[in-house]
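subagent[fold] <- orchestrator: predict structure for attached chain, return tokens only, no commentary.
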Amino acid sequence: MTDTPAKPTRPAFLNGSVKRLLIDGQQVLAESGRTFHTINPATGQVLAEVALAEAVDIDKAVAAARRAFEGPWSKFTPFDRQAVLLRLADLLDENFDELAMLDTLDMGAPITATTSRRRRGIALLRYYAGLATSIQGHTIGNSQPGGIFTYTLKEPVGVVAAINPWNGPLGMAIWKIAPALAAGCTVVLKPAEQAPLSPLRLGELCLEAGIPSGVVNVVTGFGEAGAALAAHPGVDKIAFTGSTEVGQHIVRASAGNLKRVSVELGGKSPNIVFADADLDAAVPGAAMAVFLNSGQICSAGTRLFVERKIYEEFVERVAQFARSLKVGDPLDPTTQLGPLVSESQLTRVMGYLNAAQAEGARTAAGGTRLTETGLENGYFVAPTVFSQVSDNMSIAREEIFGPVISALPFDTIGETIQRGNDTPFGLGAGIWTRDTDKVQQITRGLRTGTVWVNCYGPMDPAVPFGGYKMSGYGRESGTEHMDEFLQTKSVWLKGNAHQI
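subagent[fold] -> orchestrator:
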């Protein structure tokens, strides 16, 4: 008989104390003394009381980041920045089980999923640590008379406002902090109020790694805190991940001092399955392109286009796969899908399920809230597959951010390119086929930042990720990501060195 793995123990970080802001290397209460509760979405119970930052706290955090940028952090060489990032990677490894547990408790991802992200978190830190010593300008030949020598310098942009969503609290925090620090910037991180715990703990590890006070500040609060940070005249750049609606507000707020902005926003990604595909691989691939993280992934392949000749068979196989998934307590190592992050997100997703049925979609699997014993107080939704979906239905047009697949038949390559592009979004896409000509035609035809072929969703620190159209602009990961945090300065040098 095989022993069932034991549930992990409660992290020491959840010791009953108020979780404070991290400003200038100190853990402090909000100036107002106000707090808010972060909720376990699997049980509806309070996890922790967290300091509620407001505009005055944002002012303090930005001022601390500016002092650090112009002070001790400016004296760190590329080697020094690399060293502290590598030390942070080691500390992340040492403390990862605790951080993964915090993410599971705070936003509901199964513990097997959060613990599996260890490699990615460490890899991101080590990748950007390597880039810290690879920042280069260029010498440039020019056509001016008089022997003028020209070259460029790459310099850090300054104070960065990093504003993150709740669907990957730890990973998103690393993804913002690491390249900013590698470039020589300082950071004020505002995590989502639904899942602030692991970013606060990561802030503690930054100090332990030897990153000077004020270089990384973590301010927890609601949208008002994020808005104050986005509009703050002391911020030089905003790095935002979240909804398209909030991203538009961020861009407008940046106009006051013309901040640099990069935004990774929503998606409604097409996932295209041809009859010649390896269907045994495509079925779980298409299902988990949506059901992973309970559908709370911006690049989820929620519009499943299936070649008509295999449509009925393939949709039924995906529905069978959906019905086989275990939804439940995210601390149970056998759980495959956890709850949605909050009651408001549950209400949103249930609204789309009801609308789909009213508009005539057929429920092939799921379509309900799960309320059986043990789940009744959480925000659980069955993994759902809809067939007989038309392109104009709300479930096929709008980002749901839940475990909901809309399956649509298609007949031709040109049709699926046109329909795949018929969306304001352009973040991700998938193609399942054995035909390389189809791959080339569709890859070039789709207006989307990433295309996965015969797989869906893998990511790597070296490979850029970002969107087209209303899915945002700028890139994360890869050398392109570092460029988001660097300014280019041109230098014109005339005369001999001894004359200067």
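orchestrator: received. Logging for downstream: The first strand starts at residue 21 and ends at 23. The chain has two domains: 21-265+474-488, 270-461.
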